[in-house]
Protein: AcrR family transcriptional regulator
Organism: Saccharothrix tamanrassetensis
Amino acid sequence: MSERADAARNRAKILAAAADIVATRGIGGLGMAEVAAASGVGVGTLYRRFGDRSGLAHALIDESEREFQQTFLSGPPPLGPGAPAVDRIRAFLHALTDRTLAQLELLLTAETAGPLARFGGAYDAYHQHLAILVGQARPGLDAAFTADALLGPLAANLVSHRRWAAPTIKAGLDALVAGLFDG
C-alpha cells in the first residue's frame, strides 16, 4: 500500500526540518516539538509517525542506509560482488566504519529506544551479509557468531565511549579478519 500524497509531503517536510535542525544545532536540538514547529505539522502527527526521537533518528538515517545496502549487495567490488569473500569482508567493515562515524550522533539516538534497539533492520542485513561472506571465506567457522563478533566493535555507543578514530577501528578490524581468515 502506498503512502497518501499528503502524508508523503508531511513526511518529507518533517525529515527536511529534522535534518536541518541536526545540521545547524546538532542532535541535542532534535526535539519533537522543535521539529513539529519547523515542519508545520502537529506534534501528535510526529509522534504517530515516528514514535519518538529515536524513531525520527532512524528515519533520518534510512535513505543513506538504503544506498549503503545497495552498494554492498550489488555495487562494484570489493564492497559489492565479484571480489574474494575476505576482501569483501574487509571492504564492508571499512565502509561500515566510515558510515558509523559519519552518523554517530544519529545512531546513538536511534539505538537508545531500548536495550535491543540496535538490532533488527539494518543490523540484521549487515549480519546476514557478513555471515554469508564468513561462510564462503572459511567454511566450518560459526558464521553467525563471527558476524556478530565483527560487528560488535562498531556499536555506536562503544565507538563513542572509546572515541576511536577511523584508522584505529579499521586497523583493529583488519587484525581480527587477518587472524580469522589469513592464517
User: Anything to note?
Assistant: The chain has ten helices and no strands. The two ends are 50 Å apart (CA to CA). The CA atoms of residues 116 and 132 lie 23 Å apart.
